[in-house]
């Protein structure tokens, strides 16, 4: 089990903060998408492999995170 925390634009996952320069927020067919990126082209490849680069909330309320190596469905732990 891993913890994902999103608070005031700060994202923490797998115990580390995601250091990003910008985020693009969009909506496609009712799906909310957030893409994260860095401005330095020489760091783009390592950023995409080491960090979460996207967040998605589907119209059904499913919450997903991904990068170029993985994608994961995030669920709240049951009480």
How would you explain this protein's 3D organization?
The chain has 79 residues and is mostly beta strands. The protein has one helix and eight strands, in the order βββββαβββ. A five-stranded antiparallel β-sheet has the order 4-5-6-7-8. The longest helix is centred in the middle third of the chain and has 7 residues. The mean pLDDT is 91.
Topology:
Elements: E1 4-7, E2 10-13, E3 16-17, E4 22-28, E5 31-37, H1 44-50, E6 54-57, E7 63-66, E8 71-74
Antiparallel strand pairs: 1-2, 2-3, 4-5, 5-6, 6-7, 7-8
Feature tags:
79 residues, mainly beta, 3-stranded antiparallel sheet, 1 helix, 8 strands, 46% strand
Task: Provide a concise account of the structure shown.
The chain has one helix at 44-50, and strands spanning 4-7, 10-13, 16-17, 22-28, 31-37, 54-57, 63-66, 71-74. By secondary structure, it is mainly β.
**Between the first and last Cα atoms, what is the distance in angstroms?**
15 Å
The largest sheet is:
5 strands, antiparallel
Low-confidence parts: none
State mean pLDDT (0 to 100 scale). Answer: 91
Number of beta-strand segments: 8
User: Radius of gyration in whole Å, from Cα?
Assistant: 13 Å
- Give me the strand/helix succession: EEEEEHEEE
Strands across the major sheet, in which order?
4-5-6-7-8
Q: Helical percent range?
A: under 10%
Quaternary state, please?
A: single chain
The fraction of residues assigned to DSSP E strands is over 45%
How many helices in DSSP terms? 1
Write down the overall geometry: globular
Structural class, please?
Answer: mainly beta
């Amino acid at each position: 089990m891993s913890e994902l925390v999103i608070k005031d634009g700060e994202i923490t996952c797998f115990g580390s903060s995601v250091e990003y320069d910008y985020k693009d927020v969009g909506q496609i067919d009712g799906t909310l998408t957030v893409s994260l990126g860095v401005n330095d082209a020489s760091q783009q490849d390592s950023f995409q492999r080491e960090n979460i680069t996207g967040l998605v909330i589907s119209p059904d309320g499913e919450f997903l995170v991904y990068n170029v190596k993985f994608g994961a469905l995030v669920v709240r732990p049951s009480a």
